[in-house]
Amino acid sequence: MSSLKKFFGTKKSSTDTTKDAVRKLEDTRDLLMKKSDFLEKKIAECITLAKKYGLKNKRAALKVLAQKKEYEKQLTRMDNTLSIIENQLQTIDNAGMNLEVFKVLKATAGSLKDTHKNMKIDDVQNTMDDIMEQRDIAQEISDAISNPSAFGLDVDEDELLAELQGLQEEELQNELLNIDNVPELPNVPARDLPNPSTSEDKEQDKQLKDLMAWASAE
């Protein structure tokens, strides 16, 4: 059996086959890029020689330019091949990414299926109905507990407003009475009051005059 495997080879998986294809494409791309660099150098050499020969050696210059044209054709073919290889590598890369996304989606779908396996729509609906019913009951209990009439606290709001208005009117009347009972101020005198400082000044002037008269008599 082992000899048959060696002769025919073992069967490769799709992943290994894809990796081999990518590796071969990359090797071919690298080889073509090296040859493209070589052709670009040869084209540059031909241009240099053609300028060197110029009109002095017209035949040699034309031969070099003809060789340059051939190199340019080869370079164009290689560039086209490189574009095809790059597109193929990009396609393989996108296919691999799509495969990974598909695997994730498939695993997610399986998990959801296992999760919902023990869940029935009718059971879910019944559970939601029970939740809504219990919420309504809780609301009714809360309303009953917070109702003021249950503790005799249900008071007519109009009655309270009337009482408040009466208190405000009573306060206003008290303020008006306080204004009427302000004590009277004393009357302002009709003539000017004597200035105490004026009498004192007159006494000082009299004493000064007496002193001056005594000094003159001496």
TrEMBL record:
Sorted UniProt keywords: Endosome
Entry's Gene Ontology cellular component terms: cytoplasmic side of plasma membrane; ESCRT III complex; multivesicular body
Subcellular location: Endosome
InterPro entries (alphabetical): Snf7_fam
A biological process term (GO) from this entry: vesicle budding from membrane
Biased composition (Basic and acidic residues): 199-209
Key word Electron transport present: no
Coiled-coil blocks: none
Annotated region (Disordered), positions in chain: 178-218
One Pfam family from the record: Snf7
Family that this chain belongs to: Belongs to the SNF7 family.
Name of the protein this chain belongs to: Charged multivesicular body protein 4Ba
Lineage summary: Eukaryota, Metazoa, Spiralia, Lophotrochozoa, Platyhelminthes
